Amino acid sequence: MSAWLTMLRKDLRLLKNQWLGFLAVAVVSAGADLAAHALGIVDARTALIVGIVLTCTPLIAFPAQAYRGINQEMKEAAALWLQTPQSGWAMLGSKLVSSLIGSLPWLVICYGLALALFRSVNIADALPLLHYQTQVHSSGLTVTTRTATALASLTQSHIAILLAQIPRIELYVMLLFLCYGVYLAMWIALVYMAVQMLKNRAPRLGWIVALFGSLAATWGLGALKGTALYNQLFGWGRVPGVKLFPADVRSLLAGYVSPTLAIGHFTFSAVIVVLLFWITGLIIDRHLEV
What we know:
The protein is mainly α. It has eleven helices and four strands; from the N terminus they run αααααββααααβαβα. The strands form two sheets. The chain has a two-stranded antiparallel ribbon with strand order 1-2. Strands 3-4 form a two-stranded antiparallel sheet. α1 runs antiparallel to α2, α1 packs parallel to α5 and α5 packs across α11.
């Protein structure tokens, strides 16, 4: 077995207790909410809220695992970790891969729990349906008004079609949050390593310098994305979001929803992740002192 795979196995063992803790919290909270809803103790909104929270967990789970792995190495065994023959990129890659391996079963279990919660309630009641309200005025005149909503013309059969897509929508959202979690984890790793690098140079200002540096970088990226140059370089490959769904759903949403996904935007984010990985590995490899 290669030295890197040995390192990966060690990182997986380091994160095992955290995975079990995360999963225990998810199972207990979802199970308690399902039982309470079945007994009529809580209303449908609570089940929806818990399901939405479980759907959003990949955004937090991956960065939390990556941070815990790196922080534990630096606090408990920095000398052993930094003096291994592996490069900084190999060590950082092991942390990220172990976090990803831990996130996948977490994603599957939270997906199933959230789906069970969504199916335990009538989500159609939460949709902006067409409602008619009858009012009787003092003059005896009866007036029927209707609520103006973007989805006012949807029929119950249309609603049934949309509700059938909940598993697909939930999966797309969780995968998107996992991608954002990887992006966030790379920024956290860079800031953390930058602080460690600055400890000997500016012990009291390390966090401040690293934090403001990362804020300036993210602000610069945000400003860049609002320029015409960015749209020219990375605005290509636009695909209507409704193409992710079956034909009957596409025809149903054609008049209401028209978001587009630009492959160029995802490519730009992937380039940023690779750049952050390279810079962080360089700091680990050449600029950290034991």
